[in-house]
Design brief:
172 residues, alpha+beta, 3-stranded antiparallel beta sheet, 5 helices, globular
């Protein structure tokens, strides 16, 4: 839902209101800030530029594509949820991980990015950054090439946050 919700505090307030006492709400959100733990991004990294442009366009649209577990947790607690937990995961982009399960997750994420990046980009960049479709396609070809490179060990931070609606008024 990241990149499509304008008012996260309101979203969590509405979620709490519509949840049964004792019920749970969970969000799993990618932070559109690709990272590496080994500094494997090239000097003129197109993935990084894509992430920056996505956030710039989102801001102009009144949105954000950036999120953190701490922010999700605080917003859930501020809305009235209890027992709130936030966890961070790394979703690899590509088949570079040595771990078999992470390599499989990375393969799925790579396909998602290669096939979905155009849809994630076109409206934002043409409407809010003034880019032409041709310029976007040239940039996306470079981004796709970097995503496919096994020399670049990129991943998305994924934050999972969940919390419980109090069972009684005294729990709030």
């Amino acid at each position: 839902m990241n990149g499509s919700i304008r008012d996260w505090p309101r979203f969590f307030e509405q979620s709490l209101r519509h949840c049964k006492p004792g019920g749970w709400v969970e969000c799993q959100e990618l932070d559109v800030d690709a990272r590496t733990d080994d500094n494997s991004f090239p000097e003129d990294c197109q993935i990084t530029k894509w992430c920056e442009n996505q956030e710039e366009a989102a801001k102009k649209a009144g949105l954000t594509v950036r999120i953190s577990g701490d922010v999700l947790k605080k917003q859930m607690e501020d809305a009235g949820f209890v027992n709130v937990v936030s966890r961070e995961f790394k979703i690899p982009i590509g088949t570079w991980p040595a771990d078999e399960k992470l390599r499989e997750a990375g393969a799925f994420q790579l396909v998602a990015m290669l096939e979905g990046i155009q849809g994630l980009t076109l409206a934002f960049w043409t409407r809010f950054l003034g880019w032409s479709e041709e310029a976007i396609e040239v940039t996306l070809a470079k981004v796709r090439a970097e995503f496919k490179s096994r020399k670049i060990h990129s991943y998305w931070p994924l934050y999972a946050a969940y919390g419980q609606k109090p069972t009684t008024a005294s729990e709030t």
